[in-house]
UniProtKB/TrEMBL annotation:
InterPro entries: Ig-like_dom (IPR007110), Ig-like_dom_sf (IPR036179), Ig-like_fold (IPR013783), Ig_sub (IPR003599), Ig_sub2 (IPR003598), Immunoglobulin_dom (IPR013151), Neural/epithelial_adhesion (IPR051170). The chain crosses the membrane at residues 405-427. SMART domains: IG, IGc2. One of its GO terms (cellular component) is neuron projection. Keywords: Disulfide bond, Immunoglobulin domain, Membrane, Repeat, Signal, Transmembrane, Transmembrane helix. Residues 1-18 form the signal peptide. This is WD repeat and SOCS box containing 2. It comes from Maylandia zebra. Residues 23-112, 131-214, 310-398 form the Ig-like domain. The keyword Translocase does not apply. Gene3D superfamilies: Immunoglobulins. Pfam families: ig, Ig_3. It comes from the Eukaryota.
């Protein structure tokens, strides 16, 4: 259709050039007029307009061919008394270059050229995008990864020029594809969120220069393959904890709900809970639901709350003037516990300094006491607390002086020597009496055999 229209326009220009040359060769005064009309319009093509003179004879040609006219009002083409050409109910095909040749009463002639363009549309321009689902406001959405086809159609005379254009976050009115005809199609393979935006179909009539634009907004929905993330945040008040549920890479914004509350539209949902509402072994769950999908597409995350349980050696002894390290291991607490070392029944808080050194190696909390004295003897507490509650490991530290350690060593050596000496003496006695022990055994065996042979009971 584009080639045919081009040829038709070329023929018009060739004919117009020939008519213009004819007019110039005649040397008569000529006039040029350009008119446009839509199908069904009544059009009057002017001829002699130099004065109020009625031409004697007027003939009209279109593209070099004489037009047959008449005075019958029922005819569609009529030459009026002033020489103008009246076209009623203009239709496609009436476009062209018209040449009027009027003979005046003084036998002079007048030439007039009229370029008539018949145009319509673009009209009934419509678009469709599939597969896509319409929202209540008319916006369409599709799922990420889909192959989406955009179609645009309309009617126009002459043939319209169609263009698909896209405007999004990272682009502005980018042309996607264009062509002439009644419809235009464009396909997006594996559509991604970057293709979300406004798609415009522009239908342009090249003759009338009229452009009609139809716009459609397309959203690209997607849901992450990952589950939402549940985490906790401790507050300055150890008896309070903030739970946070986050589900990213989801569009539109999902519905989130903790067990203890209603659904809310949010990427991240926080809830603060107190110790009175929490218990050891309690499971806290967050449910995430895409807005455009049903409950069967829900995903969740959860964690189980646990009280702290500090472990370590309950009794430790050391020598005076030495360094000693008390250890406490805490691995079970959820949320993590805050662990400190305390001393005495008054639970005095211990801080790092020249006397005490606090350190942490993984889950092991260490308290090193430098240059231990008898005053350091007593009870120490590994104090672990989380929002659920408090637990303590009690460690008793015994400090021994150097003299008591020496005395104990001497006594131990004496007892060991005594045991060894007794063993040697007993062994020697047994060795020296071995003959008598063996003879006694022989005599007993002989007597026993004699009694058996003589049927005598002992």
């Amino acid at each position: 259709m584009k080639v045919v229209a081009t040829l038709a326009l070329l023929q018009l220009y060739i004919s117009a050039t020939a008519d213009l040359v004819t007019a110039e060769v005649s040397g008569n005064v000529s006039s040029e007029t350009a008119l446009s009309a839509s199908p069904g319009d009544i059009v009057v093509l002017p001829c002699y307009s130099a004065g109020k003179v009625t031409p004697v004879v007027t003939t009209w040609t279109k593209n070099g061919r004489e037009i047959v006219t008449g005075g019958d009002p029922t005819r569609r083409l009529i030459v009026n008394p002033d020489g103008s050409l009246n076209i009623s109910a203009t239709m496609p095909g009436d476009e062209g270059i018209y040449l009027c040749n009027s003979t005046l009463s003084d036998n002079s002639s007048f030439l007039a050229r009229v370029l008539l363009q018949v145009t319509s549309g673009p009209e009934n321009v419509s678009t469709s995008i599939s597969p896509a689902t319409a929202l209540s406001n008319g916006t369409l959405y599709t799922d990420r990864g889909s192959s989406v086809t955009l179609r645009c159609s309309g009617s126009s005379y002459p043939s319209q020029h169609l263009t698909w254009a896209f405007s999004g976050d990272s682009s502005s009115n980018d042309s996607l594809v264009s062509g002439s005809g009644s419809s235009l199609k464009f396909t997006i393979q594996n559509i991604q969120p970057s293709a979300q935006g406004v798609y415009s179909c522009m239908a342009h009539n090249p003759v009338s220069n009229v452009t009609v634009i139809s716009r459609t907004e397309l959203l690209v929905y997607y849901v992450s393959d990952r589950h939402p993330e549940c985490k906790w945040t401790l507050t300055q008040n150890i008896s309070l904890v903030q739970f946070t549920c986050t589900w990213l890479e989801v569009y539109p914004t999902p519905n989130l709900r903790w067990d203890m509350g209603p659904f809310q539209v949010a990427d991240s949902l926080n809830v603060t809970m107190s110790r009175s509402t929490l218990s050891d072994g309690q499971t806290v769950n967050c449910t995430a639901q895409p807005q455009h999908l049903g409950p069967e597409k829900e995903k969740s995350c959860s964690f189980t709350l646990e009280l702290p349980f500090p472990e370590g050696e309950p009794m430790v002894s050391t020598l005076e003037a030495s360094n000693v390290t008390l250890t406490c291991t805490e691995t079970t607490s959820k949320p993590p516990a805050i662990t400190t070392w305390r001393k005495g029944l008054q639970l005095d808080n211990i801080e790092s300094g020249s006397k005490y050194i606090l350190s942490l190696e993984g889950p092991v909390f260490k308290l090193t006491i430098v240059n231990v004295t008898k005053e350091d003897e007593g009870f120490y507490f590994c104090h672990s607390e989380n929002p659920l509650g408090l637990r303590e490991l009690e460690v008793e530290l015994t400090v021994k002086t150097a003299s008591s350690a020496y005395t104990g060593a001497v006594i131990g050596i004496f007892i060991a020597a005594l045991i060894m000496g007794s063993a040697v003496i007993i062994a020697k006695i047994v060795y020296n009496s071995r003959d008598r022990i063996c003879l006694g055994n022989f005599f007993f065996l002989f007597i026993n055999k004699f009694c058996i042979n003589n049927s005598v009971s002992l």
